Amino acid sequence: MIGKIKAYKDRIIVLAALLGLLAAGLYAMLAGDTSSVVWERRDPNAAPEHAALNDWHFDRETESFLSDRVPFRRALVALDSGVNALTGRRTQLEAWYAAGAVVEKPVHRTVSDVEQHLSAFAKFADAAGKPWLVLTPPSHGWLLRGSMPALMARQYEDETAAYAAMAENDHVVQMPAAFSDDPRRMYYATDHHWTLDGAWQAYLALGERLRYEPLTMEDFRITRYEGFHGTTLSSSGLPALWSDTIVCAEPDGPVKLTILNRDGQLETYDRLLFPEKTETVDGYGVYLQDNYGLLMIENDSAPEGTLMVYKDSFANCLLPMLSAHYSRIVVADMRLIKGGYTSIMKQAGKRLRTEDVDPDAILFIYSLADL
Amino acid sequence: MVFSSFTFLLLFMPVTLLGCRLLPGKARMPFLLAVSLLFYAWGNPLWLLLLLWSMGMNYGGVLLMMRGGRRRRWVLIALIVLNLMPLFWFKYAGFFADTLMSLTGWAPVFERPVLPVGISFFTFQAMSYVIDVWRGEARAQRNFLVFGVYLSLFPQLVAGPIVRYVELEEQLLKHETPSWEDMREGLRRFCFGLGKKVLLADAVGRFWGQMNGDFTQAGALGAWLGLLAFSFQIFFDFSGYSDMALGLGRCMGFRFPENFDRPYRADSVTEFWRRWHMTLSGWFRAYVYIPLGGNRVAMWRRDLNLLIVWALTGLWHGAGWHFVLWGVYFAVLLVLEKHLLLKRGWYQRLPRPVRQMGCFFLVMLGWGIFSGFGTPLVQAMAGGFGLGSAQAMLACAAFAPLQLLCCAVSFLPEIRLGRASAIAAPVILILCLAALAAQGYAPFVYFQF
User: Fold this and answer.
1) CB spacing of B394 vs A90 below 8 angstroms
2) Which one from B175, B277, B317, B322 is the annotated catalytic residue?
3) Do residues A196 and A248 touch, judged by C-beta distance below 8 A?
């Protein structure tokens, strides 16, 4: 038998290689699994259309279609990312590995960019005649720059200058020293967002500036969700060898969440956390169901009045805690208001319409990348 | 279609190679022609018309030429002009229009055509057929199928090697079923070529690409290391492609001529050009240099011939004056080398590694001209923008292991892997598939020539 195999060795090797490749190709073409693309947080590329045959894109579209469906795509990307990381090059999409965490690429914002944004916030809030504050969480990569090789650490010089410029403005909430002292506790290892500990530090710092009396952690209802793989890990392409635990805090009493959904309809819920979202690829949607352009949180038992928040996704973990203090928080995520501000305000109705909110204060919560 | 794509690796290649091995003899030539035309049409079906025109025109033209008579020479001239016309239009019309405008201020108005892939390669192959038949070195091919396969055979259609008709004639006429051993060896070579392209050329090219022609941040360190990376990128890209072509050819029962012989180990520019893109050098030697008189003329005339050949070689690589300058640069080096260096005892007594490094340095400077970045690159290399920004330093450090690997593969003597190659080939293939899954689509650098 062994002698026969030896005699047929070349034939076996060639047929195994060619039939193996062909099987992979046919699988990708006919029954391709696109689940790994979902992990990359995008829609899979569609099959090329015949109309594209003459417009120079047919081959590229075929390639993208196959690439998204090739067997073991997730493992292949992880292998490539691992090889790149081991040889000192960056992983996919410029995510860096440092101190046990995958961190996002440096944000290149100049001091003048920052001053321009702060000036715009001031103009907006002054026109409304309301007190205003800016909260900018430092990025995880910037906090961990000391754990990176010196050359890589120098990539974060722009961010350092930007944060220093922000610190000189009285309306900017100074982030507590805990962020620099223990960044690994403040942020997820697989995601760019802060953990409950990070948001908690922001909650305490905001209490001093907004003049509410912060509660203790025991005053909130705490829930934990294991197995969270965040965006920096998925964009790095590295294998999902480790995961995070999402810890959430929400007020104990009844709250109401109103969302203007993507169809322009108002949806109302009696909760702020959506555990079912932890089963999806974007587990961070556990807070407030996801990111929406406009939403409102109401808590009739809260002592303070109305807070208007303009924010990015960093606010999502913090808002449930703030809702313990404000009877109404109206939240706008300007990144998601795409159909024109006037149009969305018409859909929102009077109670959510920002010009009719008449808040006690305006809070801008933006990471440097979204500023 | 490019070799380093899922479309080729997972569908086209297995079907084609299995077809080549399993189909009966009579069906093989039509099959090869069909798959080759499909391969070429994949990028843009309209380009197929150009290839078919070249096939029909050269096939019919040569038969007409062979009818004899006083018009033979005119048919030859007509065929050469007709072969060069599409090349001139698609590749050089815009270039000459720009030159005309910069000289006279008058710009002819026309829509710039997109360069069809591989036009330089199949045009030169077709011309080699016409001239070889004219010279009596090859017989006119009366079987259109055989001639069609010669001109369109997909492994070497778009990026070489440039196979002269006389080198392939016998293999085409007596085409036999490839043996399983040949197929295994061919696949092994294909994998190594794919590895050169995807794991080395594309990867190290990203470093050069990051600079994107802006050397103010790169500084002196970034510019020098960037140029080194570009030198490796262009070598591994092109020689990787040639390896893949040779490997596929062997799988299909053909033996194409070698195109590269570890050129960065050359110890003189003359030797470098005997090792780099050997089929192109051979083409120019056979069809331009020797007809001009070659070495059997006065020394000044030989030097002039070299200058003409290398200016044309430069122009073949691209439509731009920097390509011509690159060719002339090598002509000057070759002339200087012949007159001043190669016959001197002191030069030959230098240790070979020193001569090799000197030669590589000159070749690398040549790639600087080839890149077309001109003054900013020279300024950066001379330290005009400082040593380099933090970002450039980081990129230099990050790519250092890869550059070292490229150095080792380029400069060290070849290591015979023996049985290890049986394991290395599939490992390289998997790493390439991983890189393709992660990086997506990466066209070959040499397709633009």
Assistant:
1) no
2) B317
3) yes
Decide if B113 touches A, using CB distance below 8 A: no
Flag if B6 and A28 touch (Cβ within 8 Å). yes
Could you report the per-residue pLDDT of B266-304, keeping only the tens digit for each?
Answer: 989 999 999 999 999 998 998 889 888 888 888 888 889
Given a cut of 60, whether residue B351 has pLDDT beyond it is yes
Mean pLDDT on B118-127: 89
Whether ipTM exceeds 0.90: no
Task: Decide if A13 and B184 are in contact by the 8 Å CB cutoff.
Answer: yes
Domain boundaries, chain A: 2-71, 101-370
B317 assigned to active site: yes
List phi, psi (to 5°) of B73. -60, -40
Map tokens 């360069």 to a residue: B115
Residues of A in Cβ contact (< 8 Å) with B187: 13-14, 17-18
